[in-house]
């Protein structure tokens, strides 16, 4: 499809719709570099010259181009089109308002409660297809007198923070934007504050002093109370405007609490990410770089439910009784900390190459002679296909699936069948197919974008699922990296042959998606959001509901591919990051994307869908971008299953898989006519490997009932190992 059609698809999915830094007392120190897994770069050199340098047609608005700009994170909307689509720092939403018809120019913000959510298509139904939060309710607008001709610029780009500047010839407002920030903080330079409200101020009163700050309480006409702290005097000018007496700093938070009093005056301007992994225990921390001072020496930050479950004791001690609803991820809690530390146990350090599930009753995967006979027959048949021709197509995504399919066939022939003849037949052809991409000789070669800084397709933006606009890079490149890892496991020398040809290809893709730190060529962790606990696939297309992700399974497939590559490449820090990512995904996805009946995070009328469909920052829609299914909703479920690999059983519990099967899939499975049936049947092995194996082993086999990225060879090998 073309660019316009792709952008329209995104829009249809939107249903509506000069301050001196002070070090704060008590600020904790970050980890030593020797221990920090985020201080171990994948590589630092310029990408290989075979990737032609290009400038992107879409220029990030309000940004200096001398550093990588995030393309898939929370603030990216502010860099796109007219910069007016909202962003979500959680729990607050903010957006740039500058249209002539608007009452006040500036940065608007709001918070919505769970009771405000809109469910559809029938709001009265007990079973909802989607829900979203009402957008653009202007509880407040940070503005000033004669604040037209505004420019919004962004500075100090990081994965979880950025600094916004709203300015014109009169002066500017500096607004640090950090994920989970407790206050909306605005520093007014050379101009006097106007804090406007489209909702309107019903009550406004000063509530005394908090150290050197004046404290105000505001009740809006929607009966919601907010607290305002400022180092200048504020007065109510009219029901829609509060004005300041001079330039100064203003902080606003929803509700009233002594915890706001304890932390007002201090605010984060940056967030540093660090972490350690020791055995199967992983720790990750958000260190807030602070300006100002508070009476407690700490700031206030909001944490999501998957953080709350694993907050380390020294952070848990500072948990408050403050709670606010997030948009799509349950109730957030506030912590008085300068460093939020989470500790995950049970990292999948022992899940590597062979099939694995929670329900395996044997120490390691084994195969019966009967199973090996069937696997061999399937491999011989599938090896007749044109590996190179099937893979050398115009899509990084689909070609990656094909490469991964045949890499698994080669892996099975070598390690499970232990058949040198079969391995010798398939392995060279898979290598040849991969090397076309490693040499960058595919139909649409990859190029290095010097604008945003990244590795993108040379196809037009609407092609290949928007790869050239940074859509889905972890999905696309994950398949390629996984295929390379399987082949390098068979032949380790191949990875570094021809002057590191394949190694350099894989490394560049990994740097594009998952660099542990930003460098001059790539941003930090383009896809995976360490705050949300999963990745965002949505690239540089503006969206009224924020970033989104469709396929949870292709998300963790990338992390699994990264892990396997680290094993063949000998990168211990990469392996630790991958294992930590997988542990975080296991927790977050089973709260926010994969729903057992006892899920307490998502709305009760939505968890009946069993899977999220598409998870946006502001809504969840039980759908896909390409449809629902030919029979029922099988595409929605299948996109959260593929591909099935040893890591699938770590993320997807037998309990969840059986509930999903019984409630959503059992009634339609026999009528599904195409490859989606194979995807669903392979996933069934996670709770019922016997019937799954029997389906793949049957004599009346129909090749058109498995996906083009699947092989019967791997499906038989996987399911029979679990018996």
UniProtKB/TrEMBL annotation:
InterPro entries: Endo-beta-glucanase, GH81_C, GH81_N. One of its GO terms (molecular function) is endo-1,3(4)-beta-glucanase activity. Coiled coil: none annotated. Residues 12-31 are annotated as: Disordered. Residues 20-31 have a biased composition (Polar residues). Residues 60-357 form the Glycosyl hydrolase family 81 N-terminal domain. GO terms for cellular component: cell surface. Its EC number is 3.2.1.39. PROSITE patterns: GH81. The keyword Hydrolase applies. Keywords: Carbohydrate metabolism, Cell wall biogenesis/degradation, Glycosidase, Hydrolase, Polysaccharide degradation. GO terms for biological process: cell wall organization; polysaccharide catabolic process. It catalyses: Hydrolysis of (1->3)-beta-D-glucosidic linkages in (1->3)-beta-D-glucans. Belongs to the glycosyl hydrolase 81 family. PANTHER family: ENDO-1,3(4)-BETA-GLUCANASE 1, GLUCAN ENDO-1,3-BETA-D-GLUCOSIDASE 2. This is glucan endo-1,3-beta-D-glucosidase.
């Amino acid at each position: 499809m073309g660019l316009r059609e792709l952008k329209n698809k995104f829009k249809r999915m939107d249903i509506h719709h000069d301050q001196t830094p002070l070090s704060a007392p008590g600020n904790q120190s970050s980890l030593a570099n020797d221990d920090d897994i985020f201080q171990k770069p994948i590589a630092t050199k310029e990408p290989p010259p075979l990737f032609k340098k290009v400038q992107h047609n879409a220029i990030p608005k309000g940004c200096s181009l001398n550093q990588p700009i995030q393309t898939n994170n929370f603030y990216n909307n502010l860099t796109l089109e007219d910069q007016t689509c909202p962003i979500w720092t959680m729990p607050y939403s903010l957006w740039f308002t500058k249209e002539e018809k608007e009452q006040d120019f500036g940065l608007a913000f709001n918070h919505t409660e769970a009771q405000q959510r809109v469910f559809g298509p029938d709001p009265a139904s007990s079973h909802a297809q989607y829900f979203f939060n009402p957008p653009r309710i202007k509880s407040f607008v940070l503005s000033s007198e004669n604040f037209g001709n505004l420019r919004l610029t962004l500075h100090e780009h990081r994965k979880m923070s950025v600094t916004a500047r709203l300015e014109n010839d009169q002066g500017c407002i500096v607004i640090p934007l950090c994920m989970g920030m407790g206050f909306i903080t605005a520093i007014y330079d050379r101009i006097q504050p106007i804090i406007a409200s489209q909702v309107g101020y019903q009550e406004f009163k000063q509530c005394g002093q908090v150290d050197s700050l004046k404290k105000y309480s505001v009740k809006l006409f929607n009966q919601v109370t907010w607290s305002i702290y400022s180092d200048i005097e504020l007065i109510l000018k009219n029901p829609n405007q509060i004005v300041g007496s001079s330039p100064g700093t203003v902080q606003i938070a929803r509700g009233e609490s002594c915890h706001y009093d304890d932390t007002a005056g201090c605010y984060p301007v940056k967030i540093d990410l660090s972490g350690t992994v020791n055995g199967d225990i992983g720790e990750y921390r958000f260190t807030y770089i602070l300006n100002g001072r508070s009476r407690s020496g700490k700031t206030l930050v909001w944490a999501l439910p998957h953080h709350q479950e694993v907050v380390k004791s020294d952070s848990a001690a500072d948990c408050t009784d403050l709670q606010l609803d997030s948009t799509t991820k349950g109730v957030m809690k506030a912590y008085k900390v300068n460093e939020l530390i989470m500790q995950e146990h049970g990292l999948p350090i022992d899940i590597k190459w062979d099939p694995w599930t929670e329900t395996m009753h044997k120490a390691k995967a084994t195969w019966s002679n009967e199973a090996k006979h069937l696997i061999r027959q399937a491999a011989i048949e599938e090896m007749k296909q044109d590996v190179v021709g099937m893979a050398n197509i115009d899509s990084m995504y689909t070609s990656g699936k094909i490469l991964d399919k045949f890499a698994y066939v080669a892996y099975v022939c070598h390690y499970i069948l232990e058949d040198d003849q079969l391995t010798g037949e398939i392995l060279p052809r898979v290598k040849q197919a991969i090397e076309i991409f490693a040499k960058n000789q595919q139909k649409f070669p990859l190029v290095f974008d010097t604008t945003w800084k990244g590795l993108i397709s040379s196809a037009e933006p609407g092609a290949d699922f928007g790869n050239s606009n940074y859509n889905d890079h972890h999905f696309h490149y994950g398949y390629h990296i996984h295929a390379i890892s399987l082949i390098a496991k068979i032949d380790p020398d191949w990875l570094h042959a021809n002057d590191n040809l394949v190694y350099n290809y894989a490394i560049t893709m990994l740097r594009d998606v998952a660099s542990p730190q930003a460098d001059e060529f790539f941003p930090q962790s383009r896809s995976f959001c360490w705050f949300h606990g999963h990745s965002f696939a949505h690239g540089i297309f503006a969206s009224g509901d924020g970033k989104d992700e469709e396929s949870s399974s292709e998300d963790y497939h990338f992390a699994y591919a990264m892990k396997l590559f680290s094993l063949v490449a000998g990168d211990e820090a990469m392996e630790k990051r991958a294992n930590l990512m997988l542990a975080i995904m296991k927790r977050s996805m089973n709260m926010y994307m994969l729903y057992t009946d006892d899920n307490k995070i998502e709305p009760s009328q939505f968890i009946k869908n069993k899977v999220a469909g598409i998870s946006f920052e502001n809504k969840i829609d039980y759908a896909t971008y390409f449809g629902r299914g030919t029979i029922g909703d099988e595409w929605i479920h299948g996109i959260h299953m593929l591909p099935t690999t040893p890591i699938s059983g770590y993320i997807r519990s037998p309990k969840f898989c059986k509930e999903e099967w019984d409630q959503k899939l059992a009634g339609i499975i026999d009528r599904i006519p195409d490859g989606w049936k194979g995807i669903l049947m392979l996933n069934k092995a996670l709770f019922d490997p016997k019937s799954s194996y029997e389906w793949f082993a049957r004599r009346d086999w129909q090749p058109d009932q498995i996906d083009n990225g699947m092989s019967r060879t791997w499906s038989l090998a996987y399911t029979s190992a679990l018996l």
